Automatic annotation (TrEMBL):
Top-level taxon of origin: Bacteria
Matches recorded under InterPro entries: DoxX-like
Keywords, alphabetical: Membrane, Transmembrane, Transmembrane helix
Protein known as: DoxX-like family protein
Membrane-spanning intervals of the chain: 175-196, 216-236, 243-261, 273-293
Species this protein is from: Lederbergia lenta (Bacillus lentus)
Length: 303
């Protein structure tokens, strides 16, 4: 599959800064590697005047593995209207890389008090049809998302002064907490309430509200469905701080309700008191970390 036949990746974002500052943040390798999620390190190779600027890059992919590749800044153009273009040729000889070779460009377009910073690039893939299928289904959407997220991190860095490192710490911390809560709501809604309908779940409900066995059984299943739906909403809803606020009220209520239903739970190894207290604190952290985090959705993804 040749890269000229596949759909190119396009990302655009307006940044309120001057063009020289933006140019330096994107063309200086020490600055570039700070905000671009696609690269772990970028090293320029010394060159003579008028020679093509070559560089080496590395990308850590986890489990101690990394992709090392090469790149060439094949040309740049400064127009009379102040816009600039930087073209790039890149690739790697490592067989484990899905990317074999590609080309693209960065464009800087002044617009009043901001610069429209955009990129478009495409690449050829390894592994034949299997590689093309994997690229189309998983890798291309992932690297497109990483490009857009990186552009928003760059935008926030230059506009608000928050370092890329602190932005990424908040971003990944917030998603780690979100995924944890998604699993907790999914598990507690599905396993003890719907699939097995554990007797303790029914017992707590009957002790808290006067219900017969059938009513308690049906309401327990209904609560399980609500918990699963809440977990899914937490995963996909953009304004997560509202849901974390709701959790900060819900967990003390759940702990109190369980202990009112049966004070013997205070002696259990995993008592509802400490369990819900931990989730309450995590909800506070989730609320804090989710304040104004970078997002790939802030960028334009099509021409």
């Amino acid at each position: 599959m040749n890269f000229v036949k596949s759909k190119p990746i396009y990302v655009e974002v307006p940044i309120k800064t001057d063009i020289d500052t933006l140019w330096n943040a994107t063309q200086n390798p020490d600055l570039h590697e700070q905000w671009d999620l696609r690269f772990s390190s970028i090293t320029y190779i010394p060159k003579l005047e008028n020679e093509v600027q070559e560089f080496l890059y590395k990308t850590k992919i986890g489990f101690g593995l990394e992709i090392a590749g090469w790149g060439k800044s094949v040309g740049s153009y400064h127009a009379e209207n102040g816009s600039r273009v930087s073209s790039l040729h890149f690739g790697t000889d490592q067989k484990i890389s899905i990317i074999h070779e590609g080309r693209g460009y960065w464009k800087y377009e002044p617009n009043n008090k901001s610069i429209h910073f955009l990129t478009e690039y495409n690449y050829d893939v390894n592994f034949g049809r299997i590689g093309s299928f994997f690229d189309h289904i998983i890798f291309r959407p992932l690297i497109g998302w990483a490009t857009a997220l990186s552009f928003d991190v760059l935008k926030r860095w230059l506009e608000k002064g928050e370092s890329p490192r602190s932005q990424y710490i908040r971003f990944f911390s917030s998603w780690l907490i979100t995924i944890l809560f998604f699993f907790i709501w999914l598990y507690h809604g599905l396993i003890p309430k719907i699939i097995f309908t554990h007797p303790d779940e029914i017992y707590m409900l009957q002790n808290f509200i006067s219900l017969n066995m059938h009513q308690a059984h049906m309401i327990t299943i209904l609560i399980g469905i609500v918990e699963i739906l809440f977990g899914l909403t937490l995963l996909i809803y953009r304004h997560k701080r509202k849901l974390f606020t709701l959790q900060m009220f819900a967990f003390p209520f759940l702990a109190t309700s369980a202990l009112i239903a049966n004070t013997d739970y205070l002696a259990h190894p995993f008592t509802p008191l400490t369990f819900n207290l931990a989730l309450f604190v995590l909800s506070i952290l989730g609320f804090i970390f989710n304040k104004d985090i970078p997002s790939a959705k802030s960028c334009k993804r099509k021409r």
